[in-house]
Design brief:
Blueprint: H1 9-18, H2 23-31, E1 35-46, E2 60-70, E3 76-85, H3 91-99, H4 104-110, E4 115-119, H5 131-138, E5 142-150, E6 153-162
Antiparallel strand pairs: 1-2, 2-3, 3-6, 4-5, 5-6
Length: about 180
Amino acid sequence: MTGVPLPTAAELLNALQRAKGTVTEFLEHLAGEPIDADILSQNTGPAGNDNSLGLESDAELVRRIVLLTGRISGRRFVYAESAIAVERLPASARRRLESSRDPIGRVLTKHRLEVRREPLAGPVVATGNTPRIIDLLDRAALSRRYRITLGSDPAIVVSEWFLQTVPALTSRTPSSVGPNDSSSL
């Protein structure tokens, strides 16, 4: 896209905040193709004492690292790390996350779960620390961290890095990309 100015991180964040629906729907609209979650790692273990979901230290937590990638083009749009409180998800949604390439937003939408997203303060720090991941994140246009609440229970913490391929697309960003209200993913 030579000659097309790249939006700033603030412009990308503004587009995300204006968008209705999930991050997945936002990306699919911009990219013009389905988005899949290429799972880099997914592990289950105890939440530990330091978790942002208010879980007991021995509660089951899934830690998932994915690249949101265009199904047709293979372009990487977002690197995301999430911590998912297993006991706070319906079993069918949990199984779908564990066995499919569906991003979290698609799973929550397909299960018609009422969600709220709350930004979390502080630095966004990746746990993935391979040279490949560090290089990828060094070129990220924007990073953010938020908590997803299902009903009244915080269920998922997401950290995401929007890669350089996303800002090039934001010149096509409409004010509304999905059927849900702006309080959803």
